[in-house]
Structure formats: structure tokens, C-alpha cells
């Protein structure tokens, strides 16, 4: 039982840390998510971690072959446009 409580507390601390380090949320959103993590310990932690992992896996940057990131897909590969 004590192991489960320690695991839950460390999971909440880890999730809170990742959430506060994220730049994708405004301050008010972070406050509400923090409350959710600690008031609904296991479920709140899983929900916030799901959205944090979804955010990091969907972030993709593209290049325009000049080294600058444009945020758009490049239709000209190797300098040859179709």
C-alpha cells in the first residue's frame, strides 16, 4: 500500500513538472490542470500525461531547403519542383 502511495505521489510530481515546463498552455490552464492532477490523483495524472505526450509527438517542423524552418511541407525536393 505504501509503495502505491509513493508511486502515485512521484507520478503526480513528475506530471506537474512536465506540465509547468510546457509552453503549450496558458497560466490559467496550467492552474486548472495542476488542480486536476492533485484532486483526482491517478486519473488526472493520466489525462494530463496523455495530452502532454500527444503534444510532443505531433510537433513537426519542416525546412524550405535553405535551413530555415517554415512550418509547411516542401514540395520541391532537392531543388527540383514539379
Number of strands: 2
Oligomer: single chain
Task: Look at the structure and give the mean pLDDT.
Answer: 78
What's the gyration radius in Å? 19 Å
What is the strand content?
Answer: under 5%
Major sheet: size, sense and barrel closure? 2 strands, antiparallel
Per-chain topology:
Layout: H1 2-21, H2 27-39, H3 41-57, E1 76-77, E2 80-81
Helix pairs in contact: 1-2, 1-3, 2-3
Account of the 3D structure:
- The chain is mainly alpha-helical and 82 residues long.
- It has a domain at 1-53.
- It is 61% helix and 5% strand.
- The chain has helices at residues 2-21, 27-39, 41-57, and strands spanning 76-77, 80-81.
- The protein has a two-stranded antiparallel sheet with strand order 1-2.
Compact overview of the structure:
With 82 residues, this protein is mainly α. It has helices at residues 2-21, 27-39, 41-57; strands at residues 76-77, 80-81.
Amino acid at each position: 500500500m505504501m509503495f502505491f502511495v509513493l508511486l502515485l505521489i512521484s507520478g503526480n510530481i513528475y506530471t506537474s513538472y512536465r506540465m509547468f515546463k510546457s509552453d503549450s498552455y496558458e497560466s490559467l490552464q496550467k492552474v486548472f490542470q495542476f488542480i486536476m492532477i492533485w484532486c483526482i490523483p491517478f486519473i488526472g495524472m493520466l489525462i494530463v500525461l496523455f495530452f502532454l505526450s500527444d503534444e510532443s509527438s505531433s510537433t513537426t517542423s519542416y525546412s524550405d531547403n535553405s535551413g530555415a524552418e517554415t512550418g509547411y511541407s516542401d514540395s520541391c525536393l532537392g531543388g527540383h519542383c514539379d
